[in-house]
Structure formats: C-alpha cells, structure tokens
C-alpha cells in the first residue's frame, strides 16, 4: 500500500522523546569503562531507560540495497529488556546492535517460543519520523505473546522506548517516497530448558532496518502499485480453524519458506493460501498471503462493486494495513466493503483487479 500517512495519523517522535528530556543524568559506568560488548558508548539514564549511544556509527546502505534484500542492514541501536518469572521485567536498555549469548537449550531454539511485530516509520513532509498506528502493533504483540504464555508488558512504556530508539536512529529513516524504517519488536523465551515448558526467562528486543516499498518490481506505468504474480496454493495450509493464524508467532512463518520457494519456480513472488474444505472440488476458502492480507475488488452480475477481504475468523492475521484500508474505503462510501468468507471460485469469476497489501 502506498504509505501516504494521513496528517495526524502518525505519532510525532519528538513528542515522546521530549518527555524524556530534562531528566537525563550521566551514569557512572566505570566498571564497564563505558563499553557495551567491546563497543565504545556514552551512557545515560532517561526515565528508567538506560541509553548507551554508539560512538562509531555505521555507514548507511544505499537505498537500492534496501529494496532487493529486505532485512540485511541493522541500524546502529537496539532496545533490549529481560524478563524473569517471579521477578518481572528488568531495566530496559538501548545499546549498539550486538549479538547476544544464549544457551543451546534456550527454549526459543527448539519450540519457536517467540513472537514478533513489524511496524514502519515514515518521514513526513516536515522530515519528522512518524510511526504508523503503533499502538495497534503493541496490542497485537500482546495477543501473540499471551498465546505462547510469554509475559505481559506495559504497552505505553514499550512504545515510548521504541520512540526513543527510533529518534536515536532517525537518520536511518529513508526520505524517499515509498521507503520506510522497519521496526521489529520480538519477544522470545531464553531459559535453558529443553523440556517443553512455559517460558521462565525472556528477552524482548527491538531492532530496525531501512526498507523499500513492496512490491519492488514496478511495472511500466505503475509507480506505487506494481502487479505481481502469485501462486494460489491449495496444497499447503498456512492457518486452520483452532490454530494460531491470528497471531504473529514465529512458528507460523518457517513453514512458509518451502511454498515460497515453489512459487518462485513458477515465477511467482507470493503464495496465496486457499484452504480446501470438504466436497468443494477445486474450490476453497481464501485465506491470505504468507505475510500479507488479501483483498479482492469484484463486480457482481448486477454490476455492483464490492471490496472483500476474508473475515477475521482466527485463521487471518489482523493486519493494521487491512484495518486501515477497510476504514478508509468505508469512509469513502464508493462501493460495498465486506469482511466475509471468500471462496476462490468467486474471486476468479468476479475479480476486477486484485489488491495486495502488507
Ligand atoms: C504481518 C502480517 C500481515 C500484515 O500486517 P500489517 O499489520 O498490515 O503490517 C499480514 N499477514 C500476515 C500473515 C502477517 O504476518
């Protein structure tokens, strides 16, 4: 979707950071010699947030490099907070992006006890960074975490830390239309516990990477919306009734790689999952893509127009883009907007043009 952020829809980062200013006091880190994993830092406390600023900043990759390989370039800083059952959350810290050490028994390695979010920061006309509806990401992260018995967290506080992090690495927000800074909060179970058991220790971290617009293969005549080829798969199932398709949990994504590779063989860049149900022959229920919701803009026999997206029945990830598109189109009132069960035969019969969204 074209990231045209409506005025006032985002949150000005400077507002949140402003609240932290004036409260900063230097921190005596004499023991560590102002170093974070060997990296030279300057350290301060901001309202309970330990901020270690990297001395040596990384060179930014060229814009082109962010388009064709998403997620290869980390910004300079990351946010990290540890949690222990019985003790709760520790001191949140921002520090240079660095590796962490985990025991090979760590629960996340074996049972995918992890969930994540994907949020974007855009530069507005004034050059300010704006997060797109970030509280919705906090809410969804909470839903995903609770499905895995990962701990609750203070959504307001986490968002204010994220804003601080974004502000620190603001220079990484690409200024070009269609580009953004992708923010990835993750919570994972880190206790050295080989048995399948509730999380005892966790790590919440947030990393960021500059990213280009998707799809990135803009065809002639299309600037924002570039058609892509998709493989409709009834063989693979992404989510099912009673499953966890509604949550952004790690375990939902690893199995999507093989279908994705298959799609590539057919020259397709995405897989549309259609779930076969009994006695429907070659038909099935349309779900979504591996990491995008699905919309169909259709015309019925009587000529009326309808924008349809599958209803949130537990198998669909409740996308924030999805919600935004639904709200905007309902506000426009130019055609019918429906959230309902969608059969593939209906789509292929009545499709005017497909809309694909993150
Ligand atoms: C993240 C994700 C989406 C998109 O969510 P947005 O909030 O719109 O970015 C859609 N489907 C799946 C399966 C996802 O993981």
UniProtKB/TrEMBL annotation:
Protein name: Branched-chain-amino-acid aminotransferase
PROSITE patterns xrefs: AA_TRANSFER_CLASS_4
GO molecular function: L-isoleucine-2-oxoglutarate transaminase activity; L-leucine-2-oxoglutarate transaminase activity; L-valine-2-oxoglutarate transaminase activity
EC number(s) recorded for this UniProt protein: 2.6.1.42
UniProt xrefs under SUPFAM superfamilies: D-aminoacid aminotransferase-like PLP-dependent enzymes
Gene3D superfamilies: 3.30.470.10, D-amino Acid Aminotransferase, subunit A, domain 2 (3.20.10.10)
GO BP annotations, alphabetical order: amino acid biosynthetic process; branched-chain amino acid biosynthetic process
Modified residues (N6-(pyridoxal phosphate)lysine): 248
A Pfam match: Aminotran_4
Keyword entries, A-Z: Amino-acid biosynthesis, Aminotransferase, Branched-chain amino acid biosynthesis, Pyridoxal phosphate, Transferase
Similarity-based family: Belongs to the class-IV pyridoxal-phosphate-dependent aminotransferase family.
Organism in which the protein naturally occurs: Chara braunii (Braun's stonewort)
């Amino acid at each position: 979707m074209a990231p045209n952020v409506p005025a006032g829809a985002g949150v000005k980062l400077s507002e949140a950071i402003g609240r932290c200013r004036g409260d900063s006091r230097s921190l005596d880190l004499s023991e560590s010699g102002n170093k974070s994993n060997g990296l030279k830092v300057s350290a301060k406390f901001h309202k309970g947030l330990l901020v270690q600023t990297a001395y040596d900043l990384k060179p930014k990759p060229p814009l082109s490099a962010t388009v064709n390989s998403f997620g290869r370039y980390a910004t300079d800083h990351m946010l990290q907070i540890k949690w222990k059952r019985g003790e709760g959350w520790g001191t949140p810290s921002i520090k240079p992006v660095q590796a962490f050490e985990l025991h090979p028994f760590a629960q996340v390695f074996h049972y995918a006890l992890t969930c994540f979010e994907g949020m974007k920061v855009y530069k507005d006309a004034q050059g300010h960074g704006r997060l797109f509806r970030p509280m919705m990401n906090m809410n969804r992260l909470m839903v995903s975490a609770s499905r895995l018995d990962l701990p609750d967290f203070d959504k307001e506080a986490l968002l204010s830390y994220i804003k601080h992090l974004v502000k620190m690495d603001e220079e990484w927000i690409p200024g070009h239309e269609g580009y953004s800074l992708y923010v990835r909060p993750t919570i994972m179970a880190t206790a050295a516990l080989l048995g399948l058991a509730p999380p005892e220790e966790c790590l919440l971290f947030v990393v960021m990477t500059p990213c280009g617009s998707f799809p990135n293969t803009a065809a002639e005549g299309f600037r924002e919306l570039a058609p892509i080829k998709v493989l409709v798969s009834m063989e693979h199932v992404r989510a099912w009734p009673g499953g966890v398709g509604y949550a952004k949990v790690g375990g939902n994504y690893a199995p999507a790689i093989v279908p994705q590779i298959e799609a590539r063989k057919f020259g397709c860049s995405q897989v549309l999952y259609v779930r076969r149900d009994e006695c429907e022959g070659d038909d099935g229920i349309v779900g979504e893509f591996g990491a995008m919701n699905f919309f169909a803009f259709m015309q019925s026999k009587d000529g009326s127009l309808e924008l349809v997206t599958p209803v949130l029945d537990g198998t669909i990830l409740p996308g924030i883009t999805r919600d935004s598109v639904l709200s905007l189109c309902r506000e426009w009132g130019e055609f019918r907007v429906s959230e309902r069960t969608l059969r593939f035969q209906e789509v292929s019969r009545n499709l005017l043009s497909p809309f694909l969204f993150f």
